[in-house]
Design brief:
By secondary structure, the protein is mostly beta strands. It is built from nine helices and 42 strands.
Length: 813
């Protein structure tokens, strides 16, 4: 047990103590009047139901949603609560322009408007193309964003299209912002929820969550939040055996066969202070921590039964993180000054099955002949991976904002970010011969021990000028510099048997290890570059209820390093957006928003498994996305709301991409026909992972059922069209298309005084929606397209959670 895990039980107890104390304290605080300012206490203010404006901060200013000239969707506390949103995948369904790939909790890769290449999100490859923020701080780690439990959240903002001017490198295609409720001085109040749910074909789950807002003095207020959630498993790891062709050894998975084995437990806490130093200056320190432990696998295996998989090793991941943040807000003259800084630490410990790699490389290439013990007797060659990925992230932003009521307005700032990923992955075969082990390890046939450091520097600004009271022009830019380094060790032991191409001899190594834990250093690469991206916008607002805009903007993603020595670094890729939109408001807070766009994606970064199963990244040419998105919110009568959103994306390659070179499709010109080395993705190939059509529709009715009791019923449907998995056509043929699906949720509830009870059903018709697909090693090996093994290809599909029925009881005080 590593020492940094020793703190976990303490803050687990703290979170549970917070819940318990909140429940106990509820009667004592019940006499306090609830806050009346919905901006300060959105958990008690039904913003959308009352037709009031949602205030967002997407442009680094507080503005009404309908006054922001960009495609943005925002979900208030009430919407998140009404829709029973607990985690990322719940609100992802509400955003038509957003798609994602997932292997389970904490592994979501997010995309906007079809800007996806099907990359495998390896630790040594491209940064994400979509940034995720918690309040003012970026929380996008190198392999994706934190999986935050959604409770007492003021709003979630989804910003589609390049946000490179204000949000930088990892917001090439869009940004997701999670805004927490802050402490306020309106009184002592809070909320407690307890929930019990059951998953079809699975087990029982439950949630306890609570918050309290507490003014401490006339100028200091505190807010504390805690949660504990257990999500039931629904995937069965069925019993089976695996016979290795070379040795004839049989692997039996009986010790790990189990029904409903992919359960998840999440607990955490958040605490914040708001300190008014005087009338002009406020500081808000905040600390948030969460532990998430998941067992098993979240995919079903092709060729087996519904929700079944056959794995041959224990699988478990523990994602433990905390973030300390500080926001300072004040005024110098008429200008607003904001500093936002944060330090984040994240540790993901895992153990996962890697038997597919072992079996298929043995069955197809005879690799099983290399794996024996010190007596040269064959051993069970089943591989598994023990990983320890530790992330740290420091971010600092200082910006100045001119008065919003002036004709000329400025937002400008400085930004610095340093994120480090300590990568430690042990590929283990128990009992392997000593001389086959990586030096300094126990049974490691392969070791990855690297440190990756990504630094970002930027100066940014946007200047808006009202040509007339109705017409505004905005110009913005971001000067950036990135500096990325990857160093350490990856490879087998030094071996003359033909297995190892990367070893610890003097030829490959560079002396004393620069990363502790590796036998030496065979990797030390660095790339840096500078550049500029822009945003130009014209807005016409003829009256208070109509807004029209046109935008030309650009986003970027930094270049990086290929750890294989024979492959050069990959270049940055850029996304240029041409967009026109309209926002039309009408009575009772209703609105209709629409945006049409063309996005040109240049020098696409594509990561894939190359020779020897090592991930490599190549710039795969250019693509174009043409589409539109629209959302309609109606309140036709008191208590009735209807919200509908839709997006369409026609995303295609504009150039050929080949394995060999991006400049000339050499093997294609040699007329190898439809061979493996033919054009990987010819011009016109559809970009993967995003449906052409995605949409959702929600309807809710609230009414006074009888004296002091308010009732509600609701229903929602979300549709996602068919998607391809990979941009390379030969690989896509192995995976097969991910089919379209529709999910339907329903719910009903009662509210009497401070009490509320809600009954809901998610995925009413128990649909197996395909979220993503994966193969454990190189697709042309573990996918077995030529049928060289008895198993056929082992392909895994992550599916939507089966029908879940839940009952939630809550109390406000």
């Amino acid at each position: 047990m590593r020492s940094h895990h020793a703190i976990t039980p303490h803050w687990k107890r703290a979170a549970m103590a917070l819940l318990a104390s909140t429940i106990i304290a509820a009667p004592a605080f019940a006499q306090n009047a609830p806050p009346t300012d919905p901006a300060q206490a959105p958990s008690t203010a039904p913003t959308e139901q009352q037709g009031e404006e949602i205030i967002v901060t997407a442009t680094k200013r507080a503005e009404a949603l309908q006054d922001v000239p960009m495609a943005i969707q925002a979900f208030s506390t009430k919407t998140l609560d009404d829709q029973h949103v607990d985690a990322f995948d719940d609100y992802a369904r509400l955003v038509p322009s957003l798609s994602y790939k997932s292997a389970g909790p904490g592994s979501n890769n997010v995309y906007f408007r079809g800007v996806a290449s099907g990359d495998n999100a390896n630790h040594s490859t491209s940064l994400p193309s979509v940034g995720t923020y918690l309040d003012e701080q970026p929380i996008t780690t190198i392999q994706g964003a934190l999986d935050i439990h959604v409770f007492d959240i003021a709003r979630v903002e989804a910003l589609a299209g390049p946000q490179g001017t204000l949000y930088g490198a990892s917001s090439e295609a869009g940004t997701v912002r999670i805004i927490t409720n802050k402490p306020d001085f309106n009184g002592t109040y809070g909320q407690v929820n307890l929930e019990l749910n059951n998953v079809a074909h699975g087990d029982w789950g439950y949630t306890g969550e609570g918050f309290i807002n507490l003014p401490l003095t006339s100028n200091i207020a505190a807010r504390a939040v805690g949660w504990y959630r257990h999500d039931a498993g629904y995937i069965d790891n069925i019993h089976g055996t695996l016979t290795y062709p070379t040795s004839g050894i049989v692997r039996d998975n009986a010790p790990w066969a189990e029904d409903d084995y992919n359960d998840v437990t999440t607990y955490g806490a958040r605490a914040a202070l708001k300190i008014d130093l005087n009338d002009n200056w406020t500081i808000t320190p905040q600390f948030m921590a969460q532990n998430q432990t998941s067992h098993g696998n979240f995919a079903e295996e092709r060729g087996l039964g519904d929700l079944e998989i056959m794995q041959f090793q224990k699988e478990k991941f523990t994602d433990n993180w905390w973030q300390g943040a500080l926001t300072v807000e004040g005024k110098i003259g008429n200008f607003d000054i904001t500093y936002a800084g944060a330090h984040m630490w994240r540790d993901v410990d895992g153990i996962s099955d890697y038997s597919d790699y072992t079996y298929f490389y043995d069955a197809i290439f005879g690799y099983g002949s290399f794996w024996y013990d010190n007596n040269y007797d064959y051993i069970d060659p089943t591989q598994y991976v023990v990983s320890d990925d530790t992330f740290t992230k420091d971010s600092h932003e200082l910006r100045i904002t001119s008065p919003a009521d002036k004709r000329l307005r400025l937002v400008a700032g400085l930004f610095f970010q340093r994120q480090q990923h300590n990568i430690e992955q042990h590929y283990i075969i128990d009992g392997i011969a000593d001389f086959l082990q990586v030096d300094g390890t126990n049974d490691n046939i392969w070791l990855t021990k690297q440190v990756r450091v990504d630094r970002d520097y930027a100066v940014f600004g946007e200047l808006s000028f009202d040509i007339t009271p109705e017409i505004t022009l905005t110009g913005g830019g971001r000067f950036y510099k990135f500096d990325n380094r990857l160093m350490g060790w990856f490879g087998f032991n030094n071996s003359d048997d033909g297995v190892g191409y990367s070893g610890n001899d003097d030829y490959l190594c560079k002396g004393i290890p620069i990363v502790a834990g590796g036998p030496c250093t065979n990797l030390d690469k660095r790339v840096k570059d500078t550049g500029f991206v822009h945003r130009l916008n014209a807005t016409w607002k003829p009256n208070e209820d109509m807004l029209f805009y046109a935008t030309w903007s650009r986003g970027f993603r930094p270049g990086g390093i290929n750890r294989r020595g024979s492959i050069p670094p990959f270049d940055p890729d850029f996304l240029t957006n041409y967009e026109a939109g309209a926002k039309i408001s009408f009575g009772r807070g209703s609105h209709f928003n629409v945006a049409v766009y063309q996005e040109d994606w240049k020098d696409i970064q594509l990561s894939f498994l190359g020779a020897n199963g090592l991930t490599e990244v190549r710039n795969a040419g250019d693509a174009r996305i043409r589409g539109f998105e629209a959302d309609l919110f109606l309140r036709p009568m008191e208590g009735l709301t209807w919200s509908t959103g839709v997006s369409y994306n026609d995303a295609k390659m504009r150039t050929d991409f080949c394995y060999v070179t991006n400049v000339e499709c050499l093997y294609d010109r040699l007329d190898f026909g439809d061979d493996f080395f033919d054009v990987s993705a010819p011009e016109g190939t559809r970009l993967p992972l995003t449906a052409k059509w995605k949409g959702n529709s929600r309807i809710r009715y609230e009414w006074d059922a009888w004296s002091d009791v308010r009732a509600n019923v609701q229903a929602s449907a979300s549709y996602e069209g068919d998607r391809t998995r990979d941009i390379r056509r030969a690989v896509e043929e192995i995976y097969g298309t991910m089919d379209a699906y529709t999910l339907v949720d329903v719910g009903a509830g009662l509210e009497k005084g401070p009490w509320n009870v809600d009954l809901y059903v998610k995925n009413l018709f128990d649909v197996r929606g395909e979220i993503s697909k994966s193969i454990q090693c190189n697709e042309f090996v573990c996918g077995d397209p030529l049928g060289q093994t008895n198993l056929g290809g082992k392909i895994y599909t992550t599916v939507t959670r089966p029908r879940t029925i839940g009952l939630r009881v809550g109390r406000k005080f």
